[in-house]
Amino acid sequence: MKIFLAQQNYIIGDFEHNLSKIKEATNKAIEQGGDLIVFSELSICGYPPRDFLEFNDFINRCESAIEELLPLSKNIGIIVGVPERNPQVEGKDLFNSGLLLHEGEIKGSARKTLLPTYDIFDEYRYFEPAFDWKCIDFKGLKLAITICEDIWNLNTGSENMIYNPLYRTTPMDELMKEQPDLMINLSASPFDYTHAEDRMAMVKANVAKYKIPMLYCNGVGSQTEVIFDGGSLVFDKNANLIEEGKYFEEDLIEVNLTKDGGFTETIKQSSHDLPSEELTPPNYEPNLNIDRIYHALVMGIRDYFNKLGFKKATLGASGGVDSALTQALAVAALGKENVHAILMPSQFSSDHSVSDAEQLSINLGNKYDTIAIEPIYKSFMAQLEPHFKDLAFNVAEENIQARSRGNLLMAMANKFGYILLNTSNKSELAVGYGTLYGDMAGGISVIGDIYKMQAYKLCEYINDQAGKEIIPLNIITKAPSAELRPDQKDSDSLPDYLDLDTILYQYIELRKGPKEIIALGYDETLVNRILKMVNRNEYKRNQFCPIIRVSFKSFGVGRRLPIVGKYLS
Amino acid sequence: MKIFLAQQNYIIGDFEHNLSKIKEATNKAIEQGGDLIVFSELSICGYPPRDFLEFNDFINRCESAIEELLPLSKNIGIIVGVPERNPQVEGKDLFNSGLLLHEGEIKGSARKTLLPTYDIFDEYRYFEPAFDWKCIDFKGLKLAITICEDIWNLNTGSENMIYNPLYRTTPMDELMKEQPDLMINLSASPFDYTHAEDRMAMVKANVAKYKIPMLYCNGVGSQTEVIFDGGSLVFDKNANLIEEGKYFEEDLIEVNLTKDGGFTETIKQSSHDLPSEELTPPNYEPNLNIDRIYHALVMGIRDYFNKLGFKKATLGASGGVDSALTQALAVAALGKENVHAILMPSQFSSDHSVSDAEQLSINLGNKYDTIAIEPIYKSFMAQLEPHFKDLAFNVAEENIQARSRGNLLMAMANKFGYILLNTSNKSELAVGYGTLYGDMAGGISVIGDIYKMQAYKLCEYINDQAGKEIIPLNIITKAPSAELRPDQKDSDSLPDYLDLDTILYQYIELRKGPKEIIALGYDETLVNRILKMVNRNEYKRNQFCPIIRVSFKSFGVGRRLPIVGKYLS
Hints:
By secondary structure, chain A is of the alpha/beta class. The first copy, chain A, is built from 17 helices and 19 strands.
């Protein structure tokens, strides 16, 4: 039996676009004599559709898309993901389903049982979980179809249950009662830089437990902040890897299943195959999987622009490491002809800031311009003089500079149809070291999930890959500064970045409390000060743009904290 | 039996503050010979604690607070709401529980079964639902304790099930098997301007079904965007209202339960007692419950400042209806001595804008200052001239003005320790008629859940209540304008506000699709244009500050839509 897995990049709510991609892959599969083609979770509408699911009209359009796809299923089985209405009065209105279309009809539906509600996920907001389970017959085979999270509660007995037992059900245990021939999983499994091994291990563990082949189809592409990295998988019944889809790219995978649960293809070795004990780094390691992070960020920028119908980006080029990294990523994602860097020196800017920023644009080959902010700053101060009088220079004046830059960048973006890329990193977002409506402005945050030390590693990676100095070494080696007052250095108000990042990682990613972090050997005053800064600046992050998510705990939709609250603050 | 219901205003994560309030009420109850005191849902940590619940340290502090409260329970029963660890391996880590403390011990725990995940709620993210149910004995009575949503799935049989059957369980049906004497419900039931009747009807319907008395204790106070309006309720077993807590204020309610399920207090009539068919307005009615909205907004501002430890507000006073309303609400919430209005006229401002804004501050008695933006705007344009050259004046130049105002207001806020109040209304937020980092700046949005026509009604209400012209009539009667270009009027780019509001309400509150709205008699082109504007401006609202929520569907945490998506856009 010839089976295809279509790993595709959808646009949420763009039914025409999604359906045309699905049809195109299906037609290719038909041409090549395919029996069955599998698509990813909620492929019809794109994942995550969020509150669009609450619109009856949106669900009608999903149903219409299925109707339109049915004729193509005359000679091939098509398994697609789609929200499906709950026919019962009780429970929520929808299921998150995989439908088998064949012979022009809907032959069966597999409904998702395990609905994730952690981090970025809100599936219980919309979907009723399945309460009964049935395999679906197809050409003499019994298919055990599950949706994404359904295979992530592998109840292997209380002794060696390897994953967090959030759920009380293991859908595959139920489906196995019918002795299926094949597992098929439709996924939309988000990328983080430690997740590929997790995924590989979990899919493999399912095959090891149930001893039938597995076709695992993941989506690909970026949806605002959430990255889907592909890497669809095929395992034979002996838990041998048969195919591994491309990462960060669309793919159409073909496999040929034999009658004994094997495949005609040869066995492969995956680069992501690590023992499960090594999966999640217990401590902050700035160098870990930098190559994956690079590719995820490039895809994140590219898809954000493509899906919004924009081509060109602008950003403020300060001569610092954050804006340099953002600019290099933007050039990689959009092309040097589509990036316009703006240098906005002030009276507090050092000479090297300007020359470093210029050199970067020269190295990258993108357009750049310089707009001085001193006259603007002075005109603000002149108007404010009757009110500020002789009050000392403080954060108010610093913020006026940052917001004047924000205004200039947005003016250029508005005038020329650019999107402004934000250049803030995760360390500074964490402690609130940034100005709302100033350097915190932008349509998308490129490196807001990258700690400062990771930013340095990414710069080095870019230079290494190029085999030359793309990002000027001086940008990487000089002491970081916001340059908003004379001789300012980040280290005046922030601790050493490796300490800061490590403490932040313990609090944000690992959710340790102050006692636990202090027990790691950090100074009590420092830890309390940092956690306080994190919690007090929730109000700033609440107004921040979407952040391309590369870690397993990013600021934004996956981390939801009260703005008014007094815990550790 | 003498029972107290403590309707209190907590600070999320401020255990010291919350515990001292709980102890104070308990001591009062003890002094007055009370047998039992009931607090609201998650009273120990405040509701909603959101992702703080994922921190082990936070749960430890909840447990310590219970330990600290126990000694006080020697001579009185205390029922408090607290997150409780799940002792089982399977399922999520926590329950949302009500504990009965008595004789210095934890006598029992009632765990929440129905976990809301719609609108602002995310409870399934944190909590495991209860799967078994037990009454708790107290001084010879069997108590059926439930938590908030637990009483909102009143399974009265499929014919007349009056509420949306989201859930498959009715916890009270299970508890009734033990023939309890008394229902007690711990709530954190958010306000919206149509909700009080809903709540009254639902509590009453429970009593009517189960025929035992009900003590319903709700929280009060504002938590960033979410308002809790109090209105705790006591019904006797014959569904007579015995006590109704104050609205928008703390309260300590005392009732005396007799042995036959009655109370010694006399029966009351509630102002919120309406037949359920009238609960949710099918159409937009700008005048509906304006008085409640007014009190909710005032409490929303006051609590936001109090809980953050700020006293003083600033805002941009344009002479328009939105900023006038915001300013009047701020003065009501914070006092005239704590509001500093800033007038920022430009070359496009009309004379009446300035004089109307001045008159408003004079009427309200708050401080005001004028800072002209023309010199600042000119200095931006001078710096941008080499880039903009002779390109026509467009939205870029308009936004420069709005953002210069935003910068000035934030400078004043930063310099003097004010919080900037945002003045955008729901109609303009919906269609994106506002400038990010400009008039969309601010710490909290006061009227972001108020449609334009409701804003007029609120202004009239304020003048009516004062019995004089607080908000100058000219502000209410003149044609709305952003005044960002010569002779600009809102009606140049937006439809009539009553049409706009009505269409928006159908789409946002009622979640109707374009076909359904057009079927109401609205022009197809207009409807499609408006829905497109709403969906295309999700990116702006995503960076907006928290909005005080007064409707049953506000922008913000309760409405979650993709930023990059193509549905109706």
